[in-house]
Amino acid sequence: MEFSVRIPFVELLGFELLDMADGQxxxxxxxxxxxxxxxxxxxxGASMTLMDVAMAxxxxxxxxxxxxxxxxxxxxxxxxxxxxxxxxxxLLHRTATMAFTEAxxxxxxxxxxxxxxxxxxxxxxxATAKGRxxxxxxx
Length: 139
Fold this sequence. Notes:
This protein has about 140 residues and is an alpha+beta fold. The chain has helices at about 10-15, 45-60, and strands at about 15-20, 25-30, 65-75, 85-95, 100-105, 110-125, 135.
């Protein structure tokens, strides 16, 4: 499954969208050596990006014609995220303009490594001069 919009940072990290439907999203990630921290485990920023993208896709799965931007995100790192990872995100509640979500990152052994909750705002998707679609907030 392909991402619905081009996100260069996601391409750089090598995320793979596995599923996006009915308030759920799953993304696979195999961290490259340059995505590790000084302890040789996945850098926390890469894990946070994985969950941010997964939660946004869970939100957008019920509102595909809209973009969404992160309003806030809280992350708990429970154990090192090593090797191939999978983020599973769920839309918990939504209003006309907001989505409340959570995500979990599991390692290849099925261990829960990282958890996040996030709030996203739905916004119109507008095309740029280069023809790419960007999420822009008119306010």
